[in-house]
Design a protein that fits this description.
Residues 8-182 form the Ketoreductase domain. The chain has helices spanning 18-29, 41-51, 65-79, 102-123, 149-168, 187-190, 197-209, 219-230; strands at 9-12, 33-38, 55-59, 82-87, 127-136, 175-181, 241-244. By secondary structure, it is of the alpha/beta class. The protein has a 7-stranded parallel β-sheet with strand order 3-2-1-4-5-6-7, with helices on both faces. The structure holds NADP nicotinamide-adenine-dinucleotide phosphate (NAP). Residues 13-14, 16-20, 37-40, 43, 61-63, 88-91, 111, 115, 136, 138, 181, 183-184, 186-189 line the site of NADP nicotinamide-adenine-dinucleotide phosphate (NAP).
């Protein structure tokens, strides 16, 4: 079968774990050269080895503008331009209103909002005509979840970015879409429950009970949707929020 991203250059931020890693593997399998980023060096090296010879690792914190400059200098030098940008790096933590700290706010908004904004803005000179930009949202951006308001608000901001940026970029033929996973079994999700395995399973069971399909998602199921948004299969899809959530946010 023809590869959907043959000869394309893709950048996946937060490509060393969970949804980003699964997507980087799919992008590579579809023929793309894939730059992956993350802050931790050991995880980055392991991810590059797992993705294969078309992967290039760049250690970079997406919330640090100097790191983003180095990332895109490297992409420019080694690939010349970008066809697919998956601004996926992010995450969150749980605290109820009344206990929210400045540190939690800053950490969450720096990763999920500042990082996404400047990842896309700094990539603009390298994005090729017809490029696909994918932002990682979340069902949390449109739902209420106890103790999760800071994360939810950050993902609502991400969804809003896509609506507005397609107007800013309308003369450049760049598509921007938000991919919003529901609960997906990743290290980032299970870590929300802390280090105890029983508590982690309890969280997964609770989240599965909220999903009409009765289970949480697998990272590869999000990656398949990312391939759709990255490829020509979605050539007239622009500004949407694609929920991949087993129906959770649709009921
Ligand atoms: N799993 C879910 O249920 C779910 C649901 C909805 C949305 N999401 C979203 O999906 C995205 C991926 O989450 P995941 O569940 O796959 O989490 P994960 O397993 O924790 O992976 C997160 C990835 O992002 C990287 N990262 C985090 N902060 C970063 C930063 N400031 N700069 C660069 N890289 C950074 C991590 O590597 P380092 O820590 O080494 O930097 C890692 O590679 C996030 O935006 C998350 O909010 C997840």
């Amino acid at each position: 079968m023809a590869q959907k991203l043959n000869g394309k250059v893709a950048v996946v931020t937060g490509g060393t774990s969970g949804i980003g890693l699964a997507t980087a593997k799919r992008f590579a399998a579809e023929g793309a050269r894939v730059f992956v980023t993350g802050r931790r060096k050991a995880e980055l090296d392991a991810a590059v080895a797992a993705i294969g010879k078309s992967a290039i690792g760049v250690q970079a914190d997406a919330s640090k503008l100097a790191d983003l400059d180095l990332l895109f200098q490297r992409v420019k030098a080694e690939a010349g331009g970008i066809d697919v940008l998956f601004a996926n790096a992010g995450g969150g933590s749980m605290l109820p209103l009344g206990e929210i700290t400045e540190q939690q706010y800053t950490d969450t908004f720096d990763r999920n909002v500042k990082g996404v904004l400047f990842t896309v803005q700094k990539a603009l000179p390298l994005l090729r005509d017809g490029a696909s930009v994918i932002l990682t949202g979340s069902t949390a951006g449109t739902e209420g979840t106890a103790a999760f308001s800071v994360y939810a608000a950050s993902k609502a901001a991400v969804r809003s970015f896509a609506r507005n940026w397609i107007l800013d970029l309308k003369d450049r033929h760049i598509r921007i879409n938000t991919l919003s996973p529901g609960a997906t079994r990743t290290p980032g999700l299970v870590d929300l429950a802390g280090p105890d395995a029983a508590q982690q399973q309890g969280l997964l069971d609770y989240l599965a009970s909220r999903v009409p399909m009765g289970r949480v998602g697998d990272p590869d199921e999000i990656a398949k949707a990312a391939v759709f948004l990255a490829s020509d299969d979605s050539s007239f899809v622009n500004g949407i929020e694609l929920f991949v959530d087993g129906g959770q946010a649709q009921v």
